[in-house]
Amino acid sequence: MILLDGKQTSAKIKEEIATQVSVMKQHNKRAPHLAAVLVGTNGASMTYVGAKVKACQLVGFESTLIELPEETSEDELLNQIQQLNNNPEIDGFIVQLPLPKHIDEQNVLMAVDPDKDVDGFHPMNVGRLTLDLPTFISATPFGIMELLERYEIPTSGKHVVVIGRSHIVGRPMSILMSQKRPAGNATVTIAHSRTTNLAALTKEADIVIAALGIPEFLTADMVKKDAVVIDVGITRVPDDSKKRGYRIAGDVDFESVSRKASHITPVPGGVGPMTIAMLLKNTLLACERKRP
C-alpha cells in the first residue's frame, strides 16, 4: 500500500509557487494578493482561514483577512464583496463557508467576480469547467487531480466511483475524471446516500473517491483489492480518550481499507493540505491572467 501524502506533495507545490513568486519580485512585479472574508466565529472556519493566511506568507503572497461579526447582514457582506471585486490590488478572494443561516450562500457566491473567484464556485467558472475551458477549478477537486498526477496513478479507461454529489467536490470531480487530461479519461459513476446497493458499485471500482461526509462510511468489504481510495471527508468525532475530546475521521475506515488498497489518502494529511496548495495555485493564475 502506498500512502498518497498530501502534506508532502502540497509542500512541494508551495515550494514551486514560492520560486515563481521570487522570480516575479526579481522582475519588479507585484506578488499575488489573496483576500479571505470570514463571517462569525465558527471554530473550524477560523482554523481553515488561519492556515490559508499562513500559507500565503510561506510562498510570498500578500494576504488580507477581513473578519466580520456573526450578525453581519447579507447586504453588508455583499457590499464588502463588491469592494474586493473593484480593488485592483486583490487578485483573488474567498468567502469562507459556511455562512450564518440568515445569509443566502448562493447570493454571495454569485456576487464574486468570476475573474477573482479562486474557489471556483461561481456558475461561470463551473460552466467553463464543464465545457473543458480554462478556468479556476474548485480547490479540493483540483488537489485530488494533482495528487493522482504526481503519484502517476493510471486513470485512463479505469472505473471511478465518486461517492457524493456536492457542487464543491462530487460533481466537479466526476467531470474532471471523465475529461481528456493526464488524470482523466476514466469512466465515472456518481453515487450518493440514496444509491441502491452502493457497495456493489464500489466493489467494481478501480478508484473510489469518498466525499459523503459520513465518518468511516467506506469499509474494507466495499472495495476490491488494489483499488485506489481517495478520502475527502473530515469530521470531528467525539472521543473522550483524546485531550481535545474528539478525533478527526475521514469518510473511509482507514485501518481496514488500507490493507486492501494499492494507494490511499490519510485523514488528516491527505486531501486537506492539497486544497490549500491549489487555492494558492489559483491565486497565482488569477494574478498572471491580469498581466499582459
Outline the structure in words:
This protein folds into two domains: 26-113, 3-Layer(aba) Sandwich (Rossmann fold); 139-273, NAD(P)-binding Rossmann-like Domain (Rossmann fold). It contains ten helices and eleven strands. It has helices at residues 6-26, 43-59, 74-86, 105-111, 123-130, 139-150, 170-178, 198-202, 254-257, 271-289; strands spanning 2-3, 33-39, 62-68, 92-95, 159-163, 187-191, 207-210, 228-231, 235-238, 246-249, 263-264. A six-stranded parallel beta sheet has the order 1-11-8-7-5-6. Helix 7 (170-178) links the parallel strand 5 and strand 6. Helix 2 (43-59) crosses helix 10. The longest helix has 21 residues, at 6-26. The mean pLDDT is 95.
**Biggest sheet, in brief?**
6 strands, parallel
Distance between the termini: 46 Å
CATH superfamily name of the largest domain? NAD(P)-binding Rossmann-like Domain
- The figure for the number of domains is 2
Q: Whole-number radius of gyration? A: 19 Å
Low-confidence stretches: none
Mean pLDDT: 95
Structural class, from helix and strand content? alpha/beta
Identify the CATH architecture of the largest domain.
3-Layer(aba) Sandwich
Instruction: Give the percentage of residues in beta strands.
Output: 15-25%
